[in-house]
Amino acid sequence: MNTSTRMAGKRVLVTAAGQGIGRASAVALAAAGAQVLATDVNPALLDGLRDVPGVSTAVLDVTHKDAIERTVSGLGALDALFNCAGLVHNGSIAQATDAQWAQGFDLNVRSQFWMIQCALPLLLTSAAAGRGASIINMASVCSSIKGLPNRFIYGATKAAVIGLTKSVAADYVGQGLRCNAIAPGTVDTPSLQDRINANADPVAARAAFVARQPLGRLAQAHEIAPLVVYLASDESAFVTGQVYTIDGGISI
Hints:
By secondary structure, this protein is α/β, with parallel strands linked by helices. The protein has one domain: Rossmann fold (3-Layer(aba) Sandwich), CATH 3.40.50. It has seven helices and seven strands. It has a seven-stranded parallel β-sheet with strand order 3-2-1-4-5-6-7, with helices on both faces. Strand 4, helix 3 and strand 5 form a beta-alpha-beta unit. Helix 1 packs across helix 7 and helix 2 runs parallel beside helix 3. The chain is globular and about 55 Å long. The relative contact order is 0.15.
């Protein structure tokens, strides 16, 4: 299928689109023909996206439901939603604090709950019109799929995302609304680099991330984006309630 038309006529909202997987996915969706609303909490990160054909931008803090409601209410129509926003806390249960737990679940889980709930009427309208409708949630291989050291809060939140995904899929499978999740391994993004730089020895920290990837390298954001496009498109019309692991072999 022509990559410039496979998403023609589709309207897609992407969160955390300023960098990393969110940005790569917004660009890939637009290249496939979609009209994309790329959102991020940091307006500076959206600057370059405004020049991408098919992409419009909006500042959105997904930890505030009223902000989500305002953004979604202005759309008019929506065919797909990619919930990409999230953060990673380091440490085991012994180091975890109540504040970190709350922050992790607020951004990684509750924001997806709110985004889906607010977008639901538009998505169901699209589905009822025979256009199809799709939700893609950002999970992780570090979740109910696999436990990784020093990722207690993160792993718990991403396991919750998988449960959320399957529950939404089960509730709306008869109405033409699909819901799936992607579970990446370690992806070389600006947020990962920030975590690496926070270590006393960044070189050793990066090497440790690479070492846990059986393929011997980190993923690039543009390698994740095609899966997002597939799940947002009609090519995946028979797919719902699934978790797509794209982890370079971590879960083998």
